[in-house]
Design brief:
Protein name: DUF465 domain-containing protein
Organism: Sphingomonas turrisvirgatae
Oligomer: single chain
Structural class: mainly alpha
Pfam family, one: DUF465
Order of helices and strands: HH
Largest sheet: none
Number of strands: 0
């Protein structure tokens, strides 16, 4: 993957991450929140965060000090 592809993928992942935040908040505010669904969304959000971090690391060049 070149840098432009990584940037596009990062943007899509960040959008999905924000959408999951909104979905989790909406479920919490529901009359009877579904704890299992919230837990699944949180796990997905954590996986996205890990993938975002991995891609961001690919964009930063290794500098030998």
């Amino acid at each position: 993957m070149d840098d432009s592809e990584i940037q596009r993928r990062l943007e899509l992942l960040r959008i999905e991450h924000r959408d999951l935040d909104a979905a989790i908040d909406a479920l919490r505010l529901a009359g009877a929140p579904d704890q299992l669904q919230i837990a699944r969304l949180k796990k997905r959000k954590l996986r996205l965060r890990d993938e975002i971090a991995l891609l961001e690391d690919q964009l930063i060049p290794d500098i030998i000090a």
